Structures are given as structure tokens and as C-alpha cells.
User: Fold Reverse transcriptase Ty1/copia-type domain-containing protein from Meganyctiphanes norvegica.
Amino acid sequence: KNVEPGSFDGSKELGSFDGSSGFGKNVEPGSFDGSKELGSFDGSSSFGKNVEPGSFDGSRELGSFDSSRSLGKNVDLFENRSRVDVGSKISKLDLGTKDGNGTSGKYVKQQNDTTCAGKMGYWKKGQRFQGLDPVTGMLISGKILGRAGKVTGVNKDCYNVQLDNDGWTGWFNLATLRELSEVNENIEMIILFSNDAVSLAKNKEIQTWIDNKVFEVVPNEGQRAISVRWIVTEKTKDNGLVIKARLVARGFEEDTTSLRKDSPTCSKESVRLLVAFASSKQWACNTVDVKSAYLQGDKIEREIFLKPPPEFNDGNLWKLKKTVYGLCDAARAWYMRVKSALNSLSVKMCSLDNSLFIWKRNGKLEGLICIYVDDFLWAGNATFKKCVIDELQKQFLIGSSASESFTYVGLRIKSFSDGITIDQTQYASSLVPVTISSARNMQRESQLSESEKTAYRALVGQLNWMATHTRPDIAYDTCELSVAFSKATVTELVRLNKLVKRVKNESLQLFFPRLHSFETCSLECYTDAAFANLPNGGSQGGLIIFLKDDSGKKCPIFWQSRRLKRVVNSTLAAETMALIEGAEAAVYMAGIIKQLTAVKDVKIRCLVDNKSLHESLFVIKTSRE
Assistant:
């Protein structure tokens, strides 16, 4: 009977719960249930009148937590309810409260959070949307499968989608929908903190924006604006649980095709060189963390307007003066700000690693800085600290700092009387092998399931991170396991678990002894290759480079073990390619060392275990011979 798709039950009249009764007449699809008047919890009662579809539940007034009390009255739809987090709709429990009475406790299950999608034409694969059909008024929702038109063309709003209503998949123009918005999927959350702690964290974040003069308030005159969202996290520190809130712009809503986004970070080799120099010159290694780094970046050169978060929305917009978290070029703006500050202090950038900075006085090296976003690793003498580090601390808001024993980007660095060590022992202890049942363990040749593949790849990735930073001894094993990604079997999974057990049991460290004068140091490069030991005729190549002084002490600087770039036809060819890669890496490292010191030429010594290669390099023959 005159039932529109989307109503409570197809056997009912349009908007009526029961066609034989007047109870609940004039109910609009999408209301609390089909038995209610539009926005009314109970047709026989005035309780909860004027409730709009999509409100907290059908028993409340528009935006009110509970119509039987004043708590939460006059709260805008999708805004905080009884001091809840932005945009949340809570099932059973009030967000941040244990019993709905405002006491601190758990919050659970954040249901479909509907937010403005912002600028048309910049939806991404996997995002969910909803909107109203302009003809029928039906609610249409679905998932973005991919772009169907060029981003700059007339069909920029066209996408391949899958609709929830009937499962239809095809080409769709999202610009035809009214009240188009993004729908975030259900997120299960169990966090223990009070509403007051979250509110304080949010207020603190906004105050940080104000202190750094990040924005100015301007009238809303229809400017194209980017929406924002809150990221609330908890961290455990020495003094207990700390709640942090960060306001993030939805940068994907902005057209970024013409923006430069690159932002360098220091290489692993530069960190090791800094540690080697610090050990040899008896400098202490130090780390400094910059607080709210992106908000201290360079001034923005384009117009960007933000929609303020609901708690601070007075109808105006925020015009940005600086880049903020979420914008695609925020990291670059921060890097350029740091680079400018260091240049003003006569600290020079290394041309081979743009995140390694060098400070010399009278041609003599007196300090080094490695930059990894907002984390600085530095070493130098007292003059360097006074003239550079102390001045940087005046220009930037510093969070934490540490010396001699600390963790820097996941690496634990410790200073001793005879040298410095780097390890990832704590990270290794957190590795968890993939669970394999007894029955599954018997199926050694069986291909991995999708869930097993996901766990396999994640664990190999963790091991590979250790192999490239502090564990050259597992570099080959992780490379071999990586090669098997697409066709991994239970056999590879068992090998992976054995490697994890080995890494956890062997607490190894990189040791950087105190070297003698760098003027006499040389680079020693060892290379090796295994011919045709990989699938499809591939060969494995490995190398390691040490910085060595005239007394024989060595510091490990560079290593790798990977598939050679070309398929070769002989052991000699494989060994030759490995040697070429090693020599190229050594020349690169020598170039950095020459910029750090006054040495004009760094000696490089390459060592191989292949006699044919050695003879080929040193035996000279004429064309006739």
C-alpha cells in the first residue's frame, strides 16, 4: 500500500507501522521506526516530539540527550551529546561515560559517523557516501570503487560505485545527490578516560594553534572550506595515562596536483656516520623533540579555509596562516622552516643527504644534526651546543630531550667509555610469531590463506625494518622470505616463526668504537653473490661497508642483501654486479665523509671471494690475446 522503498516494512502504508491503525501516521522513511510519528518516540505521547531523523534516538528532542532533563538541551544534530566526542552517535552508552550520568568510564562502539564530504571531485577509493535522490527523495548510500572521470574534466564528480540499496555496481555522478556526505564505518573503541580529560586535551590543542598564530577568524561568505576531525589518543608515561587530542584537516578535500609535497628525512647511513663521529670525537649523542612541529612551519602561500570543529564553531571560518596536520605539504613546510633556521646559524646542509646538517668553525667539524621530521639527533662540542642547539631551542617550542642513553626513531642509542651502541632489543621483544595449529603444521606444502598471508607479510615487514637498521645478520633471511610473498606456503611460515624466535633470543647490538684520526680512515667494502639461487633465475647479492682507522678498528656504516637487478648467466657475472653495487655505495659514503671532514680523498678498498673476478680486474690482455 503506497509504501516507499526505505520504509520500515514493505507491508505497511507509507510511513505507517500498521496499515490498520492510525497509530504512528505520517512517519517519514528513516525515522526511529515505522510505528512513530515523524520525529516522535510514541504517537500517543508528546515525549520526544520534534525529533529529526538521524537524531540520537527516536526518544529525544532534536539534539537533546534526554528530553526528561535539561542535560544536553539545544545541542546541534551530530554535535556533542552530553559532552561527547565530535560527531559521535553512541549505542547504549554515552561516549566517555560509564552510565550516562556523566561519570568517567568506558565508551564503546562509535556508530556511523556522518560528516561533510567537502569539496566535490576528490573522493577516494574505499570511502562511503550517502545522499538524497533529487527526484524520489530516497536515501542512497554506497562505497567508492574508483574514479570514472578525470579529476580536472567535466566528469570529475563521476565514480564507479557499489550501492547499498540493491547492490548495483556501475558509473555514478555523485554531484546529482542532495545533502551528499561521507559515512565513516563503524569503529569499535574501548578507551578509559573521562570526558573532562578529552575536553581539556582539545582546549589545549586549540590553544596551541592560537599561540602559534596558525589561523585567523574570517566571516563565512561561501568560501570553499576544508573540514576537520579530532584524533584522540592515550599515551602511558611515567606519571600515568595522558590523553592527547590533535585537530587534523581533511587534506584530501583540497586539490593538491600543483603542490610540492616532498620532505626529506635522514638516511640510516647518516645516523650511523653521526654516531661514528660522535664516538671518535668523544661527543655525547643527544636527541631533541619539537612540540607541535607542523604548527611551527613556514607561512602558507595559498588561501585555505577550515570549518572549525563543532565545539568552537561560531558560524565563521578559519583562514590558515600556516600549514597544519593533514595538509599534504605540511611536512615540507616544517622542513623548510628548520632548514632556514639552521642556515641562519651557519649550519650547512649535506648535498648528498638533505636531512644531515654540518657545522664547522675555521674549517673544522664541531657539530652534526640529523633530522627525522620533528626528531633531532645531534652531537658536537660545547661551542656547537651554545651557538646552535641553544639558539634552536629559542626559535622552536621543544618537547622532550635526552642525552647519552635514549631511543631515537625506534633505535636505542647508548654511550659507553669505549664507544656507542645501537640496538632494537625492545622492538624485537614485541615481535609475535604467527600462530600455527598442529593440523596446519602438517600441511607444509599448502598455500597460505588470505589471513595467513596478511600476518606473514606484516611480520616479514617488521623483521625487514630491523634487518636494515640494526641486524645485518638477518638481512638475507628476510629478503628470501620477502621473495616468497605471492606463493608462500606453510613451510615459509614455519621458517618465519623460527627467525622471529632467533631474533628474540639473540640480543645483538651494533658497536661503534672510538676511531683514531679521520684523516687516515678508509672505507672497507665486502661483497658476495649467490648465482641463480632465487626464483626465475635471480641471483642474490650482499655487501657491507665499514669505516676503518689505521689501527684496524671498524664501524659498520652500510649493508644490504637483495636480489640483483639483472638476471645473469654465470657466477662471475653475479659477483661482478655485487661488486659494482658495493663500489657505488662506498663512493656515496665517501662523498658524505669528505663533506664532514677536511679530507680531499677517502680511500676505498673492495674485497671479494671470487678468484675469477679478481683476476679479471687485474689481468690485462690485448684484443689478439
